[in-house]
Specification:
alpha+beta, Peptide Methionine Sulfoxide Reductase, Chain A, 4 helices, two-stranded parallel sheet, two-stranded antiparallel ribbon
Amino acid sequence: MSAGGSGHIEVVKVTYDPAIIERKKNLDYFWRHINPIRNDGQLCDRGAQYRPAIFYKDEVEKQAILESEKRIKKNKPFKESLKVEFIPASTFYPAEDYHQDYYKKIQGVIIITVFHAGVMRGCKHCGASNKSK
């Protein structure tokens, strides 16, 4: 996968309960935590296998994605055009075992990365915040 020869995209499969969190909130979170103007990777990972994409299972999801894209374009936070692909979902292949629950294995690194990226607003679980004191 990391060599880029498989033609696949490295993704995270998100399963959620719409009674607890709305699809719109999930999409808003996505847009805030990726670089949507790069189609050659994210952060330090480079290659087509790391390009941003959202997979949808039906027309309802596709329309929600298109509406979220419209909100981003309307606010114009980026000068460049958006490069996120919207792709019909097909077979999802789980990554190797060592990738599973990766966030648990490097928990401290992820918290620090999120904090320094300026996206943490106050974690209700650990109390971390980037607000000035």
